[in-house]
């Protein structure tokens, strides 16, 4: 089972949005970009298992027409639950 690594995000590989399976993206191989993703997610680097983020954390402009992530994509959309 692949799950989204973002805090408070319930997405898994079986999650559907409007009837379509959600897309989960593996963290980048490139260390610099991977660290940026981790920072944005408030996550610590884990060597144990591969991490994934679901499409809900990326702005529309980071997707290509075929719904792939652009090479410069970084996750910026998180439910921080501010004020709770
Ligand atoms: Zn997610």
UniProtKB/TrEMBL annotation:
Residues 1-78 form the THAP-type domain. It holds the Pfam family THAP. This is THAP-type domain-containing protein. It comes from Cardiocondyla obscurior. Signal peptide: none annotated. Keywords: DNA-binding, Metal-binding, Zinc, Zinc-finger. GO terms for molecular function: DNA binding; zinc ion binding.
